[in-house]
Amino acid sequence: MNNVCHAITKATSSLVGCFLQMEKMIINCREREKEEDFRCKQGTVHVDVKNCPILKQVSKLYTRTMYGKFYENFKVGEFGLFIEKDYMTSESICIMEIRWCDRAENNKYWTVELDLKTLDIHCSCCKFETNGILYSHALKAYTHKNLTSIPEKYLHRRWMVHAKKSIYHHDNLKRSESNCSLAFRNHMCRAAYDLALRVEKCEITI
Predict the structure, then answer these.
(1) Domain limits at 96?
(2) Which is one Gene Ontology cellular component term of this protein (predicted)?
């Protein structure tokens, strides 16, 4: 959220200006979502590598845009990275050190920890925790161990084709503490926006 705010506002922006820019950004996001929904309804995603079970799995779940991002990371993992070290620290925990194939340009490496029983995975880049999508390092570890599917916990519903249906479907609306907190935040955002508009009118009158 901080990155978004810094991108649309300046240090000298007024409170009203911040809200107006935020509203424009939200409108643009909604328009992009409509375009993505339309594209997804036109048919299934084309799988570039037909015999790859992981790509088949993701193509049936993700939107076209998110599948494209996933596929780019998949290609980088397959053709741009290699496993330098691969060792077990316990019966099920595997540690892999992953580097770029072209070490002359970049000698950086990432450490991936994979539980072969639960398929839980963690990469030192922490990009999944940040962006909610598996990056090339984790995907390289999965394919290196000849795994043919990705656990559901690493396929966020937010990026799926039917994400909106699961949100707005009446049967899925459960009253919980988190929902109450979200409703409260939405109410306070609307109240703050209305207050900013009133302040703008007062400034004009003065």
Answers:
(1) 53-163
(2) nucleus
